Amino acid sequence: MKDKDNNIKDITPNSMRLKNLSKAHFSNQSSECHPKVFIKTFGCQMNDYDSEILRGILRKRGFVVSGDLESADIVLFNTCSVREHAERRVYGQIASLAHGKGQMTNGKMIGLVGCMAQAHKEKILKDLPYVDLVCGPQHIYQIPDYLEDIILNKKKIVAVDEKQRPADRENHDFRDETKRIKAYVTIMEGCNNFCSYCIVPYVRGREKSRPPELIIKEITSLLKRGIKEITLLGQNVNSYGKDIAGGYSFCDLLKKIDAIGDLRRLRFVTSHPKDAEEEMFRAMAKLPTICESLHLPVQSGSDRILKCMNRKYSKDDYLRKIELLRKIVPGCSLSTDIIVGYPGETDEDFRQTVEIIKQVRYDTAYIFKYSPRPLTRAAGLEDDVPQSVKEERNQELLNLQKKIVRCNNEKYRNKELGVLVESASDKDEKFLVGRSRTGKMVVFEGPRELIGKIIGVRVGEVNTSTLSGEWARL
Ligand code: SF4
Fold it and tell me: Which residue, judged by its Cα, is nearest atom 8 of ligand 1?
């Protein structure tokens, strides 16, 4: 941890609060005396999870976690570095906050947490001088200490030591108490794969598995609080356990979790195509809680580009795995990530990507226009595909994918699906929203008592994003 002894703005009305803070050392639970913290999350599920843990840690220390930006004393941006676009949004929002533009007001303490902090380190204080805390993802457990230190000692803190790893922390104590149906659980941190375009290994470090007993404990605790569905998180879940002494595999973990009573549904992200093997597909088919849904990022359909990306599989390897998966887990839905406009991507390379989408017919595809990320190998290559071409390719894939999903969804018409009911619809309170095991969003009319239950819904209408139907049975 490095301390910067620059001046810090007075976070009025904290002069009174600071008095209370130092007097009470955060032991007083009265919200009158404690700073309000607002957390804004960008990026992936891993960041959602980190923000949830962070909210729990802050609450435990007596901070008031608020959903209201206006009245917050401290604003923490939990950031993502994977896309340039996300970084630009963070910079824009912090600048607006500091200058009191738009809905945001100034006079707050600002912290930049997560992958962007890790990637840009001290430079953030130069670019955004009104930021008080720069904190990499490895240090989220220390954030209450840092905030207290900043408040009491009027300093700035940059905490980006990469050696510290939080993987073996117990998180179940910090989980949000609010009643929910689904929860994420991180099973490992970091990545060893070094895909040429990806900043993750540089900001999240090398792979580190959380001990299985901590994962089981956390899931058990979540189930006791009424959680029905767990999604396991890791940059490459198939590598889980390789660093555990005595040998432990991802499938071992799946079996253990499946055996916990009360768990209704289990999902996981992300699987790397080079490591997704038959054993995992068989576990998906055999273990009743695992949903028939897999995210398998292909990134490109061109072998030449896959090689440049250091993905370590060919288009044919990938297609063979899809064929095997579909044989072992019939009806499994598939989602993917695709990058268009990687350096040197020709029209022919792009056509190969179009072809693989047509062949696999994904249920969801997250399509991104390439942008160079600092520290990565690809950042040293000329970003030579013009922006207009990236836009065109992006649009073509989006249009194609939309047609495929519309067509895929037809198979659900007049079928009854098991739906885990998640919430009332935002658009119309009479309606409820849930998901099938294959991850399809289903909307239907029904009483709120159904929330948290798995019920049968007979699908009538289908469109690109949702299926709508009638509640058939419990
Ligand atoms: S597998 Fe590749 S794309 Fe995924 S996190 Fe690791 S380096 Fe990044």
Answer: 198
Measured from the CA of 199, which atom of ligand 1 is nearest?
8
- CATH second-level architecture of 413-473? Beta Barrel (2.40)
CATH class of 2-159: alpha beta
CATH class of 172-408: alpha beta
Ligand 1 lined by 467 (C-beta under 6 Å):
no
Q: Does the beta carbon of 408 lie inside 6 Å of ligand 1? A: no
pTM above 0.85, yes or no: yes
Q: What separation in Å is there between the alpha carbon of 332 and the centre of ligand 1? A: 23
Beta 229-233 vs 441-445: how paired, if at all?
unpaired
Q: Token pair of 130, please?
A: 């009104």
Q: Is 188 in the pocket of ligand 1 (CB under 6 A)?
A: no
Q: How far is the CA of 16 from the centre of ligand 1 (A)?
A: 47
138 C-alpha vs ligand 1 centroid, how far in Å? 18
pLDDT string in tens for the chain (474-residue length): 333 333 333 333 344 454 455 444 333 334 456 788 999 999 888 888 889 889 988 988 888 998 988 888 899 999 988 888 888 898 888 888 877 544 444 568 899 999 999 999 999 999 888 899 999 988 888 999 999 888 888 889 999 887 665 555 666 566 665 668 999 999 998 999 999 999 999 988 899 999 999 999 999 999 998 999 999 999 999 999 999 998 899 999 999 999 998 899 999 999 999 999 999 999 999 999 999 999 999 999 999 999 999 999 999 999 999 999 999 999 999 999 999 999 999 999 999 999 999 999 999 999 999 999 999 999 999 999 999 999 999 999 999 999 999 999 999 999 999 999 999 998 888 999 999 999 999 999 999 999 999 999 999 999 988 999 999 866
Pairwise CA distance, residues 425 & 428, whole Å: 5
Q: From the CB of 335, is ligand 1 less than 6 Å away?
A: no
Q: Do domains 172-408 and 413-473 have the same CATH topology?
A: no
For the record, the structure tokens of 15 come out as: 């002069």
- Spell out a b/e string for 394-412, using b for 16 or more CB atoms within 10 Å of the CB, else e: bebbeebbeebbeebbeeb
Q: In what order do the strands lie in the sheet with 265-269?
A: 182-186, 229-233, 265-269
Domain boundaries, the chain: 2-159, 172-408, 413-473
Q: Which residue has the tokens 């198939």?
A: 238
Alpha-carbon distance 314 to 304, whole Å? 9
Minimal-distance CA residue to ligand 1 atom 1: 193
* CB of 59 sitting under 6 A from ligand 1: no
